[in-house]
TrEMBL record:
<feature type="domain" description="DNA/pantothenate metabolism flavoprotein C-terminal">
    <location>
        <begin position="195"/>
        <end position="317"/>
    </location>
</feature>
<comment type="similarity">
    <text>Belongs to the PPC synthetase family.</text>
</comment>
<dbReference type="GO" id="GO:0015937">
    <property type="term" value="P:coenzyme A biosynthetic process"/>
</dbReference>
<keyword id="KW-0436">Ligase</keyword>
<protein>
    <recommendedName>
        <fullName>Phosphopantothenate--cysteine ligase</fullName>
        <ecNumber>6.3.2.51</ecNumber>
    </recommendedName>
</protein>
<feature type="domain" description="DNA/pantothenate metabolism flavoprotein C-terminal">
    <location>
        <begin position="64"/>
        <end position="151"/>
    </location>
</feature>
<dbReference type="GO" id="GO:0004632">
    <property type="term" value="F:phosphopantothenate--cysteine ligase activity"/>
</dbReference>
<dbReference type="InterPro" id="IPR035929">
    <property type="entry name" value="CoaB-like_sf"/>
</dbReference>
<dbReference type="Pfam" id="PF04127">
    <property type="entry name" value="DFP"/>
</dbReference>
<comment type="function">
    <text>Catalyzes the second step in the biosynthesis of coenzyme A from vitamin B5, where cysteine is conjugated to 4'-phosphopantothenate to form 4-phosphopantothenoylcysteine. Has a preference for ATP over CTP as a cosubstrate.</text>
</comment>
<dbReference type="InterPro" id="IPR007085">
    <property type="entry name" value="DNA/pantothenate-metab_flavo_C"/>
</dbReference>
């Protein structure tokens, strides 16, 4: 039977909220966009130029450009980092969405956490590559110039995927940019927004990365590894300014912006998604609950609320929810562009 909100506790709408359980007001500071508290990666200017050239090239050919953020940010606890806090995200949503955006005619800037999932690579994510390789012949195995081939029984789709990947590379449809820490992410997102502001409403921001709300300012961070011999560790973390605010208001005010809302408690999900739209005044929030995110999301706009659900049949046919999300958003983006041009 298809999963529906009636037989899955994580689906919206959840049971009525407990009386008296009012939600706290947001405490996250907004930013004027200066990011002075966060160290910029040394290559940020170079990356900004690459992104601007990429966006200009594709937009002048009439192609829309999407900036996808993907993976979790890392927050160091020490300057010479041994320990850090991490936000959960495998990067699968971002990587898979990148493939569907390219299929829909977009060029993609893929701002992703180093070593998180990468487009066209998902089949390798959980396997030992050596299990998929073999010598072309038994004689090869004993030769120094052995020929090694991919075992197509292990990767039945490898030819199709390789062709697609090479086509994407040849047409320069995918620009990968990596981040590791929260500071990298914030500066690179700002740089990408500034680069994409030159193409106005042709740009879409698809903010699927899981971004930390807490950090330790560089001025308060110990240089060396924290010593356990000093006893239990008490951490005091500052709030990270919500980067969505300057992105929508100042850096790329004409772009079509989608943020993601992740919660583990389904009771508060939609209220939080609506509040994000009210606060940041962007176009869409894709709301999801951690445990059901692969099969169910709600696309929330100021006027609409659309549930996207994978049925058992879809799952049998290996349909991915990102296919549905991207299809919904590319149509909305098209409408947005035509309204801007009226
Ligand atoms: O990668 P997968 O394993 O496939 O999982 C996908 C996902 C669950 C990570 C993804 O679907 C998702 O929900 N990503 C957003 C997670 C998140 O950070 O949610 P949030 O509620 O903490 O933040 C909401 C929005 O505010 C996000 O778009 C975020 O980019 C933005 N934000 C967050 C923190 C911050 N300091 N500034 C921000 O602008």
């Amino acid at each position: 039977m298809a999963e529906s909100r009636f037989n899955n506790p994580y689906f919206w709408p959840p049971p009525p909220a407990v009386p008296g359980r009012a939600m706290a007001e947001p405490r996250t500071p907004s930013t004027d966009g200066t990011l002075d508290e966060f160290a910029a990666p040394t290559h940020v200017e170079e990356v900004r130029e690459q992104m601007a050239a990429f966006a200009g090239h594709h937009a002048s050919a009439g192609r829309r450009v999407v900036l996808i953020t993907s993976g979790g940010t890392k927050v160091p606890l020490e300057s010479r980092t041994v320990r850090f806090l991490d936000n959960f995200s495998s990067g699968r949503r971002g990587a898979s969405s990148a493939e569907y955006f390219i299929e829909s005619g977009y060029a993609v800037i893929f701002l992703h956490r180093h070593r998180s999932l990468y487009p066209y690579n998902s089949m390798f994510s959980s396997m030992n590559m050596l299990e998929a390789l073999k010598f072309r012949s038994a004689e090869d195995a004993s030769s120094d110039a052995a020929e090694v081939v991919v075992d197509q029984q292990v990767f039945p789709n490898i030819t199709k995927v390789l062709k697609k990947y090479q086509e994407v590379k040849e047409n320069r449809l995918l620009l990968p940019v990596e981040f590791n820490t929260l500071s990298d992410y914030l500066h690179l997102l700002k740089a990408s927004a500034q680069a994409l502001s030159t193409i106005g409403s042709m740009a879409m921001f698809y903010l699927a990365a899981a971004v930390s709300d807490f950090y330790i300012p560089a001025s308060e961070m110990p240089e060396h590894k924290i010593q356990s011999s000093n006893g239990p560790l008490q951490l005091s973390l500052n709030m990270v300014p919500k980067i969505l605010s300057p992105l929508v208001k100042d850096w790329a005010p004409q772009a079509f912006v989608i943020s993601f809302k992740l919660e583990t408690d389904p009771h508060i999900l939609l209220e939080k998604a609506r509040r994000a739209l009210d606060t940041y005044r962007h176009q869409v929030v894709v709301a999801n609950v951690l445990d059901s995110r692969r099969g169910y999301v709600v696309v929330v706009t100021p006027e609409t609320q659309t549930e996207l659900i994978l049925t058992d049949e879809d799952e049998k046919n290996e349909v991915e929810i990102e296919d549905r999300i991207v299809s919904n958003l590319t149509s909305a983006h098209k409408k947005f562009i035509s309204q801007q041009n009226c």
